[in-house]
Each structure stands twice: as structure tokens, then as C-alpha cells.
Amino acid sequence: MIEKLTQEQEALLPVYADKYIVLGKSTKPLPEDKAELIAKINKTYECGGLTPPKTVLFFNNPTEMLLFAKKHGDPTPTSNLCYGSLEANWIGFYEFFRQELKLTGLEAIEGLSSLTGEVSVFKPYGTVCLVSQNPTSIHTNAKGLHNLNAPALEYANGADGSEFRLYYINGIEVPDWVVLTPAADLDAKKILKITNVDVRREALRKMGPENLIKQLKGKTLDKVAITKDNMADFGYTNLRKDGMAYKLVELDIGDDFKVKYLQMSNPSLEHEHLEGVPNDCRTVKDALAFRNQQALAALGIEQWQAPKELT
């Protein structure tokens, strides 16, 4: 039983991670001569204890491949799909143990590993194997798939005219119009109707506070510059920057309904963003106390309460 990796084995972990990240983001097209690729597909079948297919058909994107499968009698074409590049993460995980620790029982992964970086996804049948090539473009950031102005993941159009494009911002899938519309032209009220909080957040983040406030006739109710000299007054024990600027703004979202947001700099993302706060908040300090439990403790407040109306 292996209970601990050696130093040499631990040193190889980032090597495998980097290798399979690259393979997972492969945009390598299908080769003109597909004999070697077909041999890898045959080996994948054999590693799984199956007889290799008599025919291998290639497609430009997964949509074209699945539509072909459905047209030719498969009622559930999305079931039992196998992945090459698109699941490089777990393939790389098992390849480390297979190759470096020589663990037995992982022989079946060898065929799939050989297809990583070569093809995107494939559908194995008894005598036929359908294969989709890799995407033509992949854009990512530290959070996952990401592109503010174009598809984050895109394949070539199929011979049947089919398309396959995914739109993501910071690892969150969003409607195509959020990505394809310039930030200044995004409709704030349309975004605020998005029910998924993650999608709505990323759409608002792309739009930016300035555009949002302008469209919704934003009114600044309070603003504060927090520095090292006054940070204790706002519940801060330290600052990530030399100073941070906050505003409490009121936005008119229509039908005579107004909401309040705290506008702040986000040190981790290096830009401004808005965060919703209760309409009872009247000052930046109210908003900070509401959102920051650490600030509450520093201010000696057990639970935030809205200021009482003065009459």
C-alpha cells in the first residue's frame, strides 16, 4: 500500500497538471491523414474490452455529431458520450497514478489518454464510432471559461450548418447577448430581470457601475474614503490598499421602485463593483456593517439593525 508520495513524485504533480491543462485547451484540428488517429480510437475500444469499430466518422462539432446520431436512429444521442480533450483533468489525474506509481487496474485509461488533445468528444457504438474534432478557440481565465466579447468556446460550423458556441464570463455560463453586446449598450433593466444571481452578477460586472448608474439615474447618498487613519471607524483592522473609496447609491429600476447599492473597489478583481444592500441603509457605514461580519465585531455590534426613523 502506498501511503505517501516521494519528493520526486510530488515534484511531478505540477508537471502533470500543466501538461493536461494544455491538452484540455487543445484546438488541434483533425489531421488530413487520419490513420494514426483511427489507430488510437481502436486502442481505446480495446482498452475497454471492446472490438474496434469498422467505421469511424468525423465531425466539425458536437452538435453536428449528435444530430447525425439522432437522425440515424439513436433516441438518446447525448448518453454514453466519451471525452478526449474536454475531460483532460480527470484523465491526467489517473495517468499520474498509472505512469508514476504503476498502479494496476488503470489500464483502461491508456486509450482515452492517447485521445486527449486529439479530439473533443466521441460517441462509441458497436461497429461505428462518431468523433468530433477539438474547438477552434478556447478562452479562459483563473476562474474557468471566460470571454467578455466573443464565445469562450467555439467549434467550426458543421457541414450541415450546425453551430456550437458557449458564452462564459469568469466561469459562469451567460446568455449570448450578454457577451455580444458592448458594455455601454447593455440594458440594465433587462439584466436585473435575470433570475440566476451568478449570471446577473457577471452581466452587471461587464456593464460596469458607471453605465449602470447612468442608465438607472443613480443618486449618490453618501460617500467615504477609508484610509488607515479612519479605518477603525468602519470596522476595518487592515486595508488591502492604501485607501478604499465607497459610495452608497440609489438606483431607479422602474415602476417607482428604487434600490440601494454599495459601490466599492474590489481588490481581488481590481475594478469597481456594486453590491446590493437593504433600502434601510442611509450611510456607507450602515452598508458596510450589513455586509461585513468582521466589521460588526470590530464595531461592537452583535447584529446589524436599520437606523430608526427620526420624527
3D architecture notes:
By secondary structure, the protein is of the alpha+beta class. Among the domains are: 7-134, no CATH class; 216-298, no CATH class. The chain is built from 11 helices and 15 strands. The chain has helices spanning 7-24, 35-47, 62-71, 88-100, 109-115, 176-180, 188-192, 197-207, 209-215, 284-291, 293-298, and strands at residues 55-59, 82-83, 121-124, 128-132, 137-138, 140-141, 144-145, 153-154, 165-166, 168-169, 172-173, 219-227, 243-252, 258-266, 271-277. The strands form 5 sheets. A 4-stranded mixed beta sheet has the order 1-4-3-2. It has a 4-stranded antiparallel beta sheet with strand order 12-13-14-15, covered by helices on one side. The chain has a 3-stranded antiparallel beta sheet with strand order 5-8-9, with no helix packed on it. β10 (168-169) and β11 (172-173) form a beta hairpin. α1 (7-24) packs antiparallel against α4 (88-100) and α2 packs antiparallel against α5 (109-115). The radius of gyration is 27 Å and the shape is elongated. The mean pLDDT is 87.
